Amino acid sequence: MPGPTKQAPPPLQVDTVRVVLAGTALWTVALVVLLLLGDRVDRMWTWTCVAAIALAALGLWVMHLQGQLRRRRPGPDDGSD
Q1: For residue 12, what are the CA distances in angstroms to 9, 15, 16, 50, 57?
Q2: Cα dihedral angle (15, 16, 17, 22), rounded to 10 degrees?
Q3: Contact between 20 and 52 (Cβ < 8 Å)
Q4: Which residues does 79 contact at the CB level (< 8 Å), separation at least 6?
Q5: What are the extents of the domains in the chain?
Q6: pTM given for the model
Q7: For residue 23, what is the enclosing H or E element?
C-alpha cells in the first residue's frame, strides 16, 4: 500500500525574458571570441553560436506574441508605493 503523497510545490516565478536575454548575451560573446580567433577554430562552433542567437530571437518573438514582453505596471498588491 503506497504511503501518503506529498503535495507538489507551487511553480517558480521565473522571468523567462531575462533568462533568454542573458543566454543570448553569452552566445553573442562566444561568437565574438570565435570570430576573433579566426581560422584557429572549427567553423561548426561559429555556426552553433549563430543558430543559438537566431533561435533566441525566434523565442523572443514568440514571447512577444504571447504577451510576455509587455512591461508589468505596478499594481496595488506589489508593494511599490
Answers
A1: 9, 10, 11, 30, 24
A2: 100
A3: no
A4: none
A5: 38-68
A6: 0.71
A7: helix 16-37
pLDDT tens figures, 29-62: 999 999 999 999 999 999 999 999 999 999 999 9
pLDDT tens, residue by residue, 19-28: 999 999 999 9
| Phi, psi dihedral angles at 66 (to 5 degrees) | -80, -10
Instruction: Return phi, psi of residue 23, to 5°.
Output: -65, -40
Q: At a CB cut-off of 8 Å and minimum separation 6, what does 77 contact? A: none
Query: Around Cβ 35, how many Cβ atoms within 10 Å?
Result: 11
